[in-house]
Amino acid sequence: MISKALTGSLKFIDGWIISHLEKSELMTCYKMSLEGRLHHFNQSTAKFAFDDLNKVDTKSGPLLSHVSLMITVLALFLASPQINSVKKTFICAEMTAYIIVALCCLRCIHVFQIGDFNASIQDVSRFNGIDEYLEKEAALKTHVLEFANGLAMIATVVMVVTFPFFLFL
Questions:
Q1: How remote is the C-alpha of 141 from its chain's centroid?
Q2: Closest CA to 134 of 61, 10, 44
Q3: In 3-state terms, what secondary structure has residue 139?
Q4: 135 contacts 34 by C-beta, under 8 angstroms
């Protein structure tokens, strides 16, 4: 039940971002960035896409840890008997924002390595569709991580500002 809900949520997030990705200039900017790096360094597109995926993976892990702690703190506030219904509604809204960030972070974590293809970078770059797939995946995950970072920053600032309100009022 929960895995179906998570899968459905991730598919919805993917669909929404992909629809905006095709319309936006993000993919064009990402391709220009790749072309610039290819011009300066004589390496394949797949190598740079893997590097970008590793950077996104590295950044999304700590953000997911932060979000987990914030959800825990909010759950402790929610369990407090002194919290009235208005505060509970506000806490639930903040938790929802953090859950969305957590889903985005889970989407950003990649589950494959270069070795999973059982080939070197030169062999991987020979496949017609793999370079384009990796480019789109790297651009998509970069966009998702930027969205998650922004939402996490807003939710954290709101939580820090409202923290005294939950404790003392």
A1: 6
A2: 44
A3: helix
A4: yes
- The letter for the amino acid at 154 is I
Type of residue numbered 12: F
Secondary structure letter of residue 70 according to DSSP: H
Q: How many CB atoms lie within 10 A of CB 145?
A: 20
- Supply the mean pLDDT for the chain: 75
18 token code pair: 């992909």
Q: What is the pLDDT of residues 31-82, one digit of tens each?
A: 556 555 555 554 666 677 778 888 898 899 999 999 999 999 999 888 888 8
CB-CB neighbours of 73 under 10 Å: 17
Please tell me the distance from the alpha carbon of residue 130 to that of residue 155, in angstroms, as a whole number: 37
What DSSP string runs through 77-133? HHH-TT--HHHHHHHHHHHHHHHHHHHHHHHHS----GGGGTS-HHHHHHSHHHHHH
